Amino acid sequence: MQSGLPDVLVLGVGGILGEAWMSGFLAGAQRAWGVDFRTANEFIGTSAGSIVAAHLAKGIEPRLPQEPVHRAQPDVTDRDILMAGLERTFRDLVTAFYPITGRATAAGASVGALARAALLAGLPIGTQSLESRSEKYRATLGSRFDPRLRVVAVDRHTGRRVVFGGPSGAPDATLDDAISASCAIPGYFTPVQIAGRQYVDGGVWSATNIDVATVRRGDHILCLTPTTVLTMSRWPALRAVGRAWQLATTLEVAAVRRRGATVTVIAPDARSAHALGENLMDPRRLENALTAGFQQGSAPRRHKLTTQRR
Description:
Elements: E1 8-11, H1 15-33, E2 42-46, H2 48-57, H3 69-72, H4 79-97, H5 101-106, H6 109-122, H7 131-141, E3 149-155, E4 161-164, H8 175-182, E5 192-194, E6 197-201, E7 220-224, H9 236-258, E8 262-266, H10 270-276, H11 286-297
Parallel strand pairs: 1-2, 1-7, 2-3, 7-8
Antiparallel strand pairs: 3-4, 3-6, 5-6
């Protein structure tokens, strides 16, 4: 038994700043709680969260403030050009996503999948390849899945959620391809081809995907969700998407609790929200986001879990 260590660690969507905040939070919490998150029973990662989860599953410590940014961001090249394009695409994407957020989130799986498929069909196909980033993931993390890791993406044509690495009938995928698929922002990055299908960012389905966790009664889940900062955005479309993601997380938490699990969801506090801002792809805020996450994770143990391990 390890005090404070969850059975399942869920790491959600968040762009490069959410990735930095989650890494910083986990590094701070490890020190404050005296835990090692790398030894959790299961990791669920979506988009940015898949990168952090894969590093932990491979035994890599979460990044501390003042460490070189490239250690936690091995996928970024030509950062200024990339981020300028991503910021424009992000605004276009959330504007397109705005009309369907409420009904797609509240709908059942089949109806929600149809709504997402319609959205994705209406967006231009991305033109920026993730191949070079996939190669860097492969060099850093290898190609083989840790059996505890689950990476979430969405089938571009059906709109359905796919969980790579889990017992869900997903096609076999290398770890690097699965992460790239989970991070493939629609309309900007080229969909990732796996077993003849096209996959895009798992955040199209949910910001957290807590409900895919394999849990038993009495298990504890810790979920980090950076995108709650969007609910305070000045942009109506961003607020709508943030609230839809928040609703989806609430519904997923309820479903997992009905299965007998205890869930702790942690969002950025006021200091972290200020550090993240409302553009989660702004590289100028990386170190501030990492430091704010570390400070939040290092705070008094009001989020501490006491977990009986399997």
